[in-house]
Design goal:
heterodimer; A: alpha/beta; Hypothetical Protein Ychn, Chain: A; B: 131 residues; 5-stranded parallel beta sheet; globular
């Protein structure tokens, strides 16, 4: 099955990004396709390369970047939501790209299921 | 396979998108950013409907005064939805009643549905985004 994901919450404060990540890993392991992961609301904060979590904790941002590198998962950050929150090209972690809300609608159209991670 | 071949190409498929608005208009950004997604989706020629339930019904209340909290009153944008061909607005009956509101308190025409009708409507959708 072809999945699109929407992540609506930032890292660490909320479980949404962790669960979305685990969903992607599990779906890929089962042979499903991840059409795109779209980051909206505070979810855009998953895309900054400036985070430095304690060493004994998971690195949420780097984990996403690794998915993009290893599995070519398309990680898209909403431009309007990103600019509001100070997320710009110059702070993007590897594998993320900034684009418009149209990319979320496109996921809704092209994916078999669009799954939301947030409240 | 054979089924696919028998079906002629008829252009891009129109999907049914439903946006479920559950939060008060101010206090968090969800309502405002939900509206931004709705307006974009409308430009993709999809079948768009909006649902307002729980505190989301406050998004449509007339006479919002936001000067005191220093945040822009974005409620006039709901009136503009009509211009984007977004005309299917549904409001949960119980959510209105629980907050002492009626249709007359709302700034746009809506269809009030009970929980069962709302459930049926949701079942018909291809994509449901909840904010």
């Amino acid at each position: 099955m072809k999945f699109g994901l929407l992540v609506s919450e930032g890292p660490y404060t909320h479980q949404a990004s962790d669960t979305a990540y685990q969903f992607v890993v599990a779906a890929l392991a089962k042979g499903h396709e991840i059409q795109r992961v779209f980051f909206y609301h505070d979810g855009v904060n998953n895309a900054t390369r400036l985070t430095e979590p304690p060493q004994d904790d998971r690195h949420v941002v780097n984990r996403w970047s690794a998915l993009a590198t290893e599995h070519k998962v398309d990680l898209v950050v909403c431009v309007a939501a990103a600019l509001r929150r100070g997320i710009k090209e110059e702070v993007l972690a590897p594998g993320f790209r900034i684009s418009g809300l149209g990319q979320l609608v496109d996921s809704g159209i092209k994916a078999d299921r669009l799954v939301t991670f947030g409240d | 396979m054979s089924e696919q071949q028998a079906t002629p190409a008829v252009g891009p498929k129109v999907k049914k998108f439903m946006f479920v608005n559950r939060k008060a208009p101010y206090g968090t950004i969800y309502a405002l950013e939900s509206l931004e997604v709705v307006l974009i989706t409308a430009t993709f020629d999809q079948d768009v409907s909006l649902v307002f339930m729980d505190d989301g019904v406050y998004e449509l209340v007339k006479g919002q005064q936001t000067k005191g909290i220093g945040i822009k009153n974005f409620s006039p944008s709901y009136r503009a939805l009509d211009g984007y061909d977004v005309e299917k607005l549904y409001v949960d009956q119980d959510s209105l009643a629980q907050r002492g509101l009626t249709e007359k308190d709302l700034l746009v025409p809506v269809e009030v549905l009970d929980a069962q009708q709302m459930g049926q409507l949701m079942q018909q959708q291809d994509v449901i985004l909840s904010f």
